[in-house]
Amino acid sequence: MAIRDLKTQISQLPEQPGVYLYFDAAGDTVYIGRARALRDRVRSYLNVHGASPKTSALVDEVTRIEVIVTDSLVEALALESHLIKQRTPRFNVLLRDDKNYPYLQLTTAEAFPRVLVARRVARDGNHYAGPFLPATLARRTMSLTHRLFGIRSCNEVITGKRDRACLEYDIKRCVAPCVASICTQEEYGKVVEHAQMFLDGKNEELIVELKARMLAASEDQRFEEAAQARDAIKTIETLRDQQQKMSNVRLNERDAFGIKTGPSGTVIQVFQMRSGRVIERVELVADTLAAETPNLQEIVQAALQQFYEARTAPSEVHLPVEVEDREDVEDWLSAQAGRRVRLSVPKRGEKRGLLDLATRNAALAYRSRYSSGALAREAALGELRVSLGLPTVPRRIECFDISTIQGSETVGAMVVCEDGRMVRKHYRKFRVRGDEVGVDRKGLPASTRRSRRSRKQSLAGVVGHDGAPKTPEPRLQDDFAAMREVVGRRYRRLLDDGGPLPDLVVIDGGKGQVSATYDALTSLGQSDLVAVGLAKKEELVFTRDATDPIIFEPNSPALLLLQRMRDEAHRFAVAYHRTARSKRDFRSDLDDIPGIGPRRRRALLAHFGSVAKIRRASREELVPVLGAKVADAVLGHFSDRGRATTDLP
Q: What are φ and ψ of residue 594, in 5° steps?
């Protein structure tokens, strides 16, 4: 047992509270724990070999011990939580928030806060609300904050010195803090306060404040402001009355931890009750990596520390079992929350009912998660995280592909994979406009040189179904530029909408396409997004930072997932390209003439028989069918087309 070689060092450890860290031969942290007396706790590991497979495996690997002394066990709890989150030792129970549902981030760290969609909660000085179920509710709620309170949605740096407010102010979706004469920073702060109350579900308090604001505005004859407050009150009251949430005012504010453990892992369902309503349900999971499932008390202890590392605990927390050092854990949570927090194990009544409900949901989630298909998807995502060095499991992956034939009708497509499943409703199509290269007046890439003959063919050689030469379509034969444009447009729009950004971007292509993708991301200030390219044939994965590609095993779950996304993106792009090409082939030259719609086009073809005869028709022949104004437009159109062909060099 390796830890016995450290017996002398252990005997010299202090008998004070603190945190101990175990390291293996490679220097990696394998376990972090806390203790009221460091020497006694670490010494106890000298005689535990054979007690359980997990503990035996741990003590066999320990080659070095470090300790950090603290003033109290409460400080040791806080330090232990921070170190576990930072180092993720593999023998600790490591829970992850498995929700794909987004949060709303009120950027209170900014002078003029905004409301954005975020995928995870961070201790960054901003205010978070959520998660929102379903995910679309997050965007609807964000839109409500704009409409009800006038929270700004732009990315501008606000100084208050703008000459005039933008359209958002005119349509009453922003109070215009960019113009100090319209809205001062103090007035905007009040708006932010109301929005925060709304996001936190404090509707009753918010309604009281809005009513006072409405009456004050009415007395001062600021009737427009009073009407805005009145409309906000009506909307909030309607939302409050329509909420279909479990409610019991006697339970007030509390969290209940329901836990289901098994040979495959652990699922925890945390039901969060606020103002007598269950407003959130957060799911935490931990896969079993050791030879046994950790005991329930250890799991509960880890869940408390990791869950409340980034959240504020309510006044009461219900648990299925007692935890070690309960009073010290309560003191730590109380210090985090700024009020007294109590841990309890309810045995009967309504409190026990809430705990049982959370436990039943955890059992259902366990059966769903650890089915054979779910395990395969989790294995693929876990392998991707390790192989690509991602900070978290890539729950949302977006994959791009470009489709074209000799630069004609170039289109892009994006498909989305969430938790290993393709999500068709999030697919997007892009018509490549050639924004990334110079384009001359005729719509052709300026860098492309063509002979006189080929240029004539591009203008006159393509005909529609009615036999008329067609206007040439812009051609973009630069795949890198097309990818740069598509990726740039996608994430520029996503940033304007408030996110959230994906965990991983996959490109159908090699090193060049990856470089083009990062060019677009860097221009948007998002160079920290991870993008990889999957090249065809060799099936090599290219990254930005590595010179050599990553080679997966042929049957690797991660490679199979990447291939499935790449093939789906290719199918989607090719289907869109065929549709675009079909529309081009069946487009009539008459469609380009102002004033000619489907009815007049049918009338012209019925009267003259073909576009060639229409082109040769005189004004006197066209006027009875179209009228004088549209007849002149037809003559002008064909006259310009004739000059374009004649003027070719």
A: -60, 135
Structural domains in the chain plus CATH codes: 2-92 (3.40.1440.10), 249-370 (3.30.420.10), 386-437+476-584 (3.30.420.340), 589-646 (1.10.150.20)
Q: Where are the alpha helices (DSSP H) in 370-402?
A: 372-388
Q: What averages of pLDDT result for each successive group of 10 residues across the chain (649 residues)?
A: 77 89 88 89 79 76 88 84 81 69 83 84 77 68 82 87 88 88 90 84 77 84 80 71 44 84 82 74 71 71 84 88 87 86 88 88 81 77 88 89 79 90 90 59 37 37 44 59 91 82 91 92 88 87 88 88 92 86 63 77 82 82 84 79 49
Count of alpha carbons within 13 Å of 139, Cβ hemisphere only? Answer: 10
Query: Residue 298: phi, psi to the nearest 5?
Result: -65, -40
61-64 contact pairs (CB < 8 A, 24+):
61/2, 61/22, 61/24, 61/25, 61/30, 62/2, 62/3, 62/6, 62/22, 62/23, 62/24, 62/30, 62/31, 63/2, 63/5, 63/6, 63/23, 63/24, 63/25, 64/6, 64/22, 64/23, 64/27
The first and second tokens of residue 245, run together, are 């949430």
Q: For residues 645 and 643, what is the distance between their CA atoms, to the nearest angstrom? A: 5
d(CA 232, CA 239): 11
